Amino acid sequence: MQNAISVVVGLILGLFTLIVSVIAVIEEAARKGLVALGIPHQVQTALLALLLLLLVVGSFRLFGRLFGVLIGVVLVALLLHALFAPETTAVAF
Questions:
Q1: Selected residue with higher pLDDT from 35 and 64
Q2: At what angle do helices 41-84 and 2-36 cross, to 10 degrees?
Q3: Which segments cross the bilayer (predicted)?
Q4: What is the pTM of this model?
Q5: Could you tell me which residue, 7 or 35, shows the higher pLDDT?
Q6: If you write DSSP's letter for every residue of 2-45 in order, what string do you get?
C-alpha cells in the first residue's frame, strides 16, 4: 500500500513539475519575444504579470482546484521573481 501511495505521489509531483516547466518556458519565450520587439522594461513587466495572471486562471480551469492552487502558488512566486529580480531571466527548478 505504501508503494502505491508513493507511486501516485510521484506521478502527481511529476505532472506538477511538467506543468510548471511548460509555464516557465512560456514565460521565458514571452520575455525573449518582448525583448526582441524592443518593448521597454516596465511594459514587459506589466505584460508578463498579465500573462502569469492568465496562466493562473487557466490552471484553475484545466487542472482543478488542487493543481490550480499549487500552480497558482508557483506562478505567484514567478511573478514576484519577475517583479523583484528582472535582471535574471532564468528560473531554476
A1: 35
A2: 150
A3: 6-26, 33-56, 62-84
A4: 0.61
A5: 35
A6: HHHHHHHHHHHHHHHHHHHHHHHHHHHHHHHHHHHTT--HHHHH
Residue type, 83: L
Helix (H) or strand (E) holding 79: helix 41-84
Report d(CA 46, CA 3) in Å as an integer.
45
Condensed to tens digits (0 to 9), the pLDDT of residues 44-71 reads 888 988 988 888 788 778 777 766 666 6
CA atoms lying within 13 Å on the CB side of residue 12 = 12
* pLDDT for res 10: 73
Grid cell, residue 60, equals 484553475
